[in-house]
Structures are given as structure tokens and as C-alpha cells.
Predict the 3D structure of the following.
Amino acid sequence: MAALPKSIDETAVLLKANGYVAGRDLATVVFLALKMGRPLFLEGEAGVGKTEIAKVLAEGLGRTLIRLQCYEGLDISSAVYEWNYAAQMIEIRLAEASGELDRKRMGQDIFAERFLIKRALLQALEASDGGAPVLLIDELDRTDEAFEAFLLEVLSDYQITIPELGTIKAAEPPIVIITSNRTREVHDALKRRCLYHWVGYPDAARELEIVKTKRPEASASLAREVVAFVQALRGGDLFKSPGVAETLDWVSALHELDSVTLDPQTVNDTLGVLLKYQDDIMRMEGSEAKRILDQIKDEIRTTAANRVP
């Protein structure tokens, strides 16, 4: 288990050492969340690297990553705990068969902790030799307000109440990262318990650094052209602009095709790696893709010529 970073610069170094290229604003809020012991609420478009922050922190700090993937209809039995009803029934049948059934004692025994199935939130409150885990509550906006309300107790006091066992409180609060793609607004009461940061699309320089860090096998010319092309797409009228995850996928796909530079045919053939809606693909393929490609290649050549002494 590694010690928590003692400064913003150390936090940036920690993130970068584990493959995450962060701006100073993000490094600052991550440092403050760790220093203050507050949950970090990360909001932004899908594919910009919100979930990756939790993974990188877990790896860099040597902590266990516990991930709660949210979805519509998520309830306490799936997120917190449930009783192992099959094992409880077996216990009752065995007691009946042996003739040792004491209803009062049995009522206590079958709700012992050994019959408790611990889900992500309860696991995150347990003590560990490796230090408190990193708890990732991913895509909270997919759940409903009832589940948000339940989270208030967890995030306020780092405790969970189980009627049959009582209140279970964390000896050491977990490092909590909450993400949202903003498909709906998350309630203010929950946000107030967190530090907040909007994770936006990176600028061209940072995205190029991300590509070089995550996909070092790709040629330098291909990385520059891919980043420039994606940056141009984000400035257009698309239903869903490609995130950093799509940029990295596209670089990987092009590398597998032995591409060292972009050409119109290859772009058209691989747009499905970059764009995820048919309307966007139809809008970009053909002449529009060629226009953007010609434009970025001219800009790259002009930039390179201006650098020559």
C-alpha cells in the first residue's frame, strides 16, 4: 500500500505514472478528495476517462478496487447485501431433522453474519490489511432517486444499517469516486457531500499525450492525424462526439491495419470504431471525411513548415 500523495504535483505524478494524463485542475481536486477524505463526484460525457481515474488510483495506491456498476432498478440487495436464503433453509431443515429446533435460537442463528452475502457497498466498509479500498460508484445517473437517498447514509457517515445485525461502520472510510454521464441530474443533497469536477474533452495537446502514453506502438504521424481528426469531429454537428476511449480504440484499429497515416478509404472503412450512431457515420463518410482529412493534413504541414528554422 502506497502513501497518499502530499501535494498536487505528487498527485499528478501518481496519475501519470499509472498511465493517466491529467490537467492540474483534475489533479487538484483528486488531491483534495484524498486529503479531506471526501467522495469525488466526476461528471462528463461518456468516454472521457472518469472511470479510469478510480482504476488508476487503486493501482497507484495499492488499494483494492470495488466497483458498483449502476443501472436502472438497482436496489439494496444488489448494491449492499442480501441474505443467503438457500443456506438459511438448509440450516432450518437440518435443525428440524436433528430434532434440535429451538425457534427463538434458530431465528437468531439464521441471521448470523455467515449467511450474509456482502455486495459492493458493504464490502467497501470492511477493514482490510491493504488499507481502505477505492469504491467506484459508476454511472450513478442510471439509478433512481430512491437509491440516491440510500447513498446519503453511506457517504455521510460511512455506515450501513442492517436491521438483523445493526449498524456496520467503516473503521477507515473508503476512497469514493462517483461518476455520472449526466443523462439526468443527480440530487443536490448527494452532490453536497462530494467534491465536484467536470471532466471534459481534452485539448489537442493533452489528447496527443494520452495517445502516446496509452498507444506507444502507433506511429507519431498517425497519432497526430488521428487526434486532429477527432478534434475536428468534436467541433461538428454530431449526435455523439467521440470520447478519448474511441480515439484510443481508433488508433489501435488503425495500427492493426498497419496504417502509418490516414487516407480517405481507411477513414471511411473504420468510422464505426470512432462513431457509434449510423446518422453520424452517414454524415461523415465520403466527401465530408475527405474534406476534414485534407484540412487537418494542410494544418499539420503548415505547422511543421513554420517550425523549420
Notes: The chain has two domains: 8-80+119-198, 204-297. The mean pLDDT is 91. The first strand starts at residue 40 and ends at 43.
